[in-house]
Structure formats: C-alpha cells, structure tokens
C-alpha cells in the first residue's frame, strides 16, 4: 500500500477493567500522527495494547487495512503484528548494549529492505551511544533508543504510549522534534497516546478523544482541541488554545521564530524542525494570556494580538473566568479572575489586546 | 588416605541430577511464574514437599515405586536389564525429586522478578515465545540459574536419608559420601569420618558463601 493511500484501523472493542469499561466502535483514518488523547485512566493505554495484541483477554475486532488482527477466535499474536510499540518506560533490555538492543530488532524483522540501520541511527542521533550500556543513558536517550529499536522492526504502524511522560520538560523538548519527524521521514503512520495537550497539539494532525473508555470526538487536532465542550471534560485542569500558524522566518541569531497567525505576528522560541512557509500548531495555556483594553506601552511582552471578546464563561467553583477572544476567525482563550473581568468591564463584542509572553510557547516543539 | 570412591560418586550423582533438574525444572519454573491456572498452588505445594517431609518418607515411597515389582521398576528392568533400586540410576531419579525445590524456587523467583515487561517488548520486536525465552528471559534470569544450579548440586551432595533408603550402601554403586561417613562412624573409624565430614563442611560453606555473595553484588536491574 502506498503512503498516499489513506490507511484504516477498525476497532470494535468491549472490555471490562476494574474501574472502567472500554467500549469502542470506531474506524480511524491513519495519516501522519494520530493523537489518542484524554484524561489519565480513560483507557488510552489499554486500547493501544489491544491494537498491539498485548491484551490477550480482550474481546473484539481489530482490523488494519483489511487484515484481521483480531476477530472472534482469531487473535494474531503480538509478535506477528507489524506494529512498533514504544513504551512509556522505554524498556530497553538491560543485558544488551544500545547496539545490541537495536540488533535484537533488526535481526528479527520479517523481510529485508525497509528501514535502514544507519538511517535510524542518524535520525535519532545515536552514533555516540551505540557502544554504551543501557543503564548509563539519560531518560531522553533511553527513549530515543527505544524508538530506533522499534523502527528497525519495519513496522507498518507505530504505537507510542506516552513516550515523554516520564521525562522532565527539558528532555521532552529534546526528543519531541525526533518524534515529530518520524512519520514523514519513514512513511509510517503513528498513534500517539498522551494526556498532555501541548504534545498532542504539536505532534498530531488528527485527534481521537477517549474519555472513560469511550471515544467522544474524532477529527483534525485544531478543531477538536479547541472545542469548548472538550475543554471542560477532557482537559479539566486549564483551558488551552491551539493556534494554527505559518512559519514566517527563523531569526537564528535571536533563537526566535516569527510565525504568522491570522494576519498577525507572534514570536516564539526557535522551531528549527519546521521550515519557513510550513504550518505548525502551537498550544497556549489560558493562564499565560493577559488582556488589555488599550494598547499598552513599555511592556516586555513580545506578542500582542488584537481581537474581540466573543464569550466570557465563569468556571464553576474557581476564581477564574475563561475569556474567549476572536482573532481573525480563530479563538484564543484567556484565564482571568472574575474580579479582573469586572474591574475592566469586559463584555462580549469588546475590542481587546491579548498579550502573550514568548516564553509561554517554550513547551512547544 | 580414605577411599575417595564415595566422593567421586557423590560428585557424579550431583552433576547428573543438576543437569536433569535444569532441563526439567526450568520449564516448570517458567510455567509457574506466568500461569494463572488454578492448579498452580497445588503444583507449587507438590514441588515444595521435599522441603518439609522426612527423607525417609520419600525414600520409602521411592523404594516401592522403583522396586522391581512396580510398573516403573519392572519396565526399567526389561529395558536395561538392571534394577532401579539399589543402583546409581535409582539414586538419580530419587535425587531429582528430592532437590526439585532447590532448582524450581530460585528460578521461579528470577522469572517473576523479570516480569512481563521485557517479554512484551520482545513480542513487539517480533520475537516468538521460544525466541523471547532464550534471548531475553534466560539472560535476565542468569543469577537465578546460577543460584538454582549451585543449590541443587550442593543439596544433592548433602542428601542422606533418601539415598540410604533407595540405594543402600554398595561401594562404587550407591555409597556416596554421606553414606561413607555413616559407615565410618558405625565402624568407629573416626579419622576417616573426620576427613570426609570436615571436607563437606568446607564445601558447603564455600558454596553458600558464593550464593549469598553473588546476591549482594550488583543485582540485575530490570526496568
């Protein structure tokens, strides 16, 4: 099957776990990275394990591009499914070196050709690590080795189960560009599980939202992640905005990238992995947005977007309201205290300026 | 210098027993470490029986089960032309059962410590169950294998009751080192008894030192 053809994964699964029931009936189009997103404990990892064949007791149907991996009494064992699985905790074999871990996968691939050892090593910058033991690696290095090892099996579908969850912010930033580049570079669709909006926003083109064992939304990342109803259920901690931007230019000497957002400019920490002219998605926490009713002077804030308030929603049992601002047809959310909303006299229709520190985008890409 | 025949016989018995136990005990321990079967506690209990029963009980039933009148004993007689009781082969059969827990329990612990994580990884890297066992489980359980083999070997060297019941005291055939000591004491040959006994104490201490020493060293980390 050529990469341009749309690949399909059919999932019909009904399983009871202690605490929740997984009840899925969904056909998922696979192209680039599909984000499987939702609150922790909602069944995301279980679903990924079922796709990989690691949950033997789960009843249901798993069909990949017409190939039945599971259906009734048919259960293709995990080691015969052409999937690559990256676990949250990397799970490198401690008795093998980095190179040994990679060769373990390389020597067991079912057919020759496909992904080349040297190419994987260079894509994930592993040259310096090959002869090291696995115990001496940092968390980010371990995950890079795990991803490379998985790629060397020549998978036709990559499954990544919160591969960044165990890493600190710095390591996440180090490894995200590698993951981001995978589907294009190796032409393999991926399902990426995470409960972090910023990860899903920067990686996933399409998003499947899984809440309490059920799929509650499927669609393009920008549309899904910006939906108000999902903001309250699937992302209860704080509202976010997903900004679809186009890279205008990289300002190498300043380590900044200027992007175009609905006709206005935003400056963000440099995103080397995305070429000028290409589009990218940024996630922005509502708490990082400041609102001004008049154009302010003498502020260090680099980014100022002008727009109009479209809605003000008090968040129940909290000090905050979510203020939605229309910026040229797209929405940016700000989290303000009820007190501030009142004092500034904010109301729908009012023209305002949304101020965003460049540092707010530091977690992206 | 005392007759060293019993020493060589003990070493031969312990070697053969350990090799057979590695072949029999490994799959059993592997199964026990992963099964959800309701039979598991029963099998574990049977495996542990030699730890609590007096050796005479095992010896008594082996004597009956392996005797020329029994199906096993008469079959053996027809095939080999030799009796299973009061023979080296009979000692091996009895020793395998008698030392079974010393092989199975350390191995089962080692396999359980590995957990299913590394084996799931192996499966997603296209390793079938047998492949994953030899390429992942065995190397990760290396310490467990060493401990199990050493303990089984040492325990077989140290057995007395079962050997006496099943094998008797036939020089060159069933007179292992523990029986030889008994014989020396019975005949008031304390000098020879001292040499063999002190030798066994040193042997046992060395073995246990090795086992405990290797445990406190760098344990294998499995993440």
Structure summary:
By secondary structure, chain A is α+β, with helices and mostly antiparallel strands. Chain A is built from 9 helices and 20 strands.
Keywords:
heterodimer, A: 365 residues, Rossmann fold, OB fold (Dihydrolipoamide Acetyltransferase, E2P), 2 domains, 6-stranded mixed sheet, 5-stranded antiparallel sheet, globular, B: 223 residues, mainly alpha, MetI-like fold, 77% helix
| Name of the CATH homologous superfamily of the largest domain in chain A | P-loop containing nucleotide triphosphate hydrolases
Overall pLDDT level of chain A: 89
Largest sheet of chain B: none
Runs of chain B with pLDDT <50, length 5+? 217-223
Task: Count the E strands of chain A.
Answer: 20
Count of distinct structural domains of chain A = 2
Give a description of the structure:
The complex is a heterodimer of chains A (365) and B (223). By secondary structure, chain A is α+β, with helices and mostly antiparallel strands. Chain A has 2 domains: 7-234, P-loop containing nucleotide triphosphate hydrolases (Rossmann fold, 3-Layer(aba) Sandwich); 241-361, Beta Barrel (OB fold (Dihydrolipoamide Acetyltransferase, E2P)). Chain A is built from 9 helices and 20 strands. By secondary structure, chain B is mainly α. The termini of chain B are far apart. Chain A binds chain B through residues 52-54, 77-80, 83-85, 87, 89-95, 104-105, 108-110, 135, 149-150, 153, and chain B through 117-118, 120-129, 131-132, 135-136, 139-140, 142, 220-223.
How is the topology of this model organized?
The complex is a heterodimer of chains A (365) and B (223).
Chain A: E1 7-17, E2 20-30, E3 33-37, H1 44-52, E4 59-64, E5 67-71, E6 74-75, E7 83-86, H2 98-106, H3 117-123, H4 139-151, E8 157-161, H5 169-186, E9 190-194, H6 197-203, E10 206-211, E11 214-220, H7 221-225, H8 228-233, E12 240-251, E13 256-261, E14 264-269, E15 279-285, E16 289-292, E17 303-314, E18 320-327, E19 330-337, H9 338-344, E20 351-356
Parallel strand pairs in A: 3-9, 3-10, 7-8, 8-9
Antiparallel strand pairs in A: 1-2, 1-4, 4-5, 5-6, 10-11, 12-13, 12-15, 13-14, 16-20, 17-18, 17-20, 18-19
Helix pairs in contact in A: 2-4, 4-5
Chain B: H1 5-34, H2 40-52, H3 55-66, H4 71-80, H5 88-98, H6 100-114, H7 117-124, H8 129-140, H9 142-157, H10 161-167, H11 177-186, H12 190-216
Helix pairs in contact in B: 1-5, 1-6, 1-9, 1-11, 2-6, 3-10, 5-10, 6-9, 7-8, 9-12, 11-12
């Amino acid at each position: 099957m050529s990469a341009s053809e749309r690949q399909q994964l059919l999932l019909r699964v009904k399983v009871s776990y202690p605490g929740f029931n997984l009840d899925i009936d969904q056909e998922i189009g696979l192209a680039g990275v599909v984000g499987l997103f939702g609150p922790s404990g909602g069944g995301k990892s279980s679903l990924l394990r079922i796709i990989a064949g690691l949950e033997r007791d789960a009843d249901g149907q798993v069909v990949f591009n017409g190939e039945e991996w599971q259906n009734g009494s048919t259960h293709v064992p995990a080691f015969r499914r052409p999937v690559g699985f990256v676990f949250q905790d990397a799970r490198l074999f401690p008795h093998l070196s980095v190179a040994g871990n990679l060769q373990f996968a390389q020597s067991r691939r079912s057919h020759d050709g496909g992904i080349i050892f040297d190419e994987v090593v260079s894509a994930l910058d592993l040259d310096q690590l090959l002869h090291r033991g696995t115990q001496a690696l940092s968390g980010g290095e371990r995950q890079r080795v795990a991803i490379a090892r998985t790629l060397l099996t020549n998978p036709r579908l990559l499954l990544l189960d919160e591969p960044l969850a165990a890493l600190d912010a710095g390591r996440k930033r180090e490894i995200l560009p590698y993951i981001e580049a995978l589907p294009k570079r190796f032409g393999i669709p991926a399902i990426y599980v995470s409960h972090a909006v910023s990860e899903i926003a920067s990686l996933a083109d399409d998003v499947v939202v899984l809440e309490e064992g059920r799929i509650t939304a499927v669609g393009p990342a920008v549309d899904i992640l910006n939906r108000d109803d999902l903001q309250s259920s699937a992302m209860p901690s704080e509202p976010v905005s997903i900004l679809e931007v186009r890279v205008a230019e990289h300002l190498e000497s300043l380590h900044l990238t200027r992007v175009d957002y609905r006709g206005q400019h935003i400056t963000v920490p440099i995103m080397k992995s995305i070429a000028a002219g290409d589009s990218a998605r940024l996630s922005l926490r509502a708490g990082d947005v400041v609102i001004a009713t008049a154009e302010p002077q003498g502020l260090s804030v680099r980014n100022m977007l002008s727009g109009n308030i479209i809605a003000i929603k008090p968040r129940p049992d909290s000090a905050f309201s979510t203020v939605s601002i229309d910026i040229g047809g797209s929405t940016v959310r700000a989290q303000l205290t009820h007190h501030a909303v009142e004092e500034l006299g904010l109301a729908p229709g009012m023209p305002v300026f949304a101020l965003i520190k460049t540092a707010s985008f530091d977690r992206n890409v | 210098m005392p007759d060293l025949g019993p020493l060589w016989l003990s070493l031969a018995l312990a070697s053969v027993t350990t090799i057979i136990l590695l072949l029999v005990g490994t799959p059993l321990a592997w199964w026990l470490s992963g099964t959800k079967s309701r039979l598991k506690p029963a099998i574990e209990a049977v495996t542990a029986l030699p730890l609590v029963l007096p050796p005479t009980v095992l010896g008594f039933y082996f004597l009956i089960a392996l005797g020329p009148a029994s199906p096993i004993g008469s079959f053996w007689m027809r095939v080999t032309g030799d009796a299973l009781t009061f023979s080296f082969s009979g000692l091996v059969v009895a020793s395998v059962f008698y030392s079974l827990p010393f092989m199975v329990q350390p191995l089962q612990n080692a396999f359980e410590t590995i957990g299913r994580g590394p084996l799931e990884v192996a499966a997603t890297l296209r390793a079938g169950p047998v492949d994953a066992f030899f390429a992942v489980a065995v190397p990760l359980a290396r310490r467990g294998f060493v401990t199990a083999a050493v303990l089984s070997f040492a325990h077989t060297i140290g057995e007395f009751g079962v050997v006496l019941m099943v094998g008797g005291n036939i020089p060159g055939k069933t007179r292992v080192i523990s029986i030889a000591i008994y014989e020396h004491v019975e005949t008031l040959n304390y000098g020879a008894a001292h040499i063999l006994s002190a030798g066994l104490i040193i042997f046992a201490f060395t073995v246990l030192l090795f086992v405990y020493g290797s445990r406190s060293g760098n344990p294998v980390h499995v993440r």
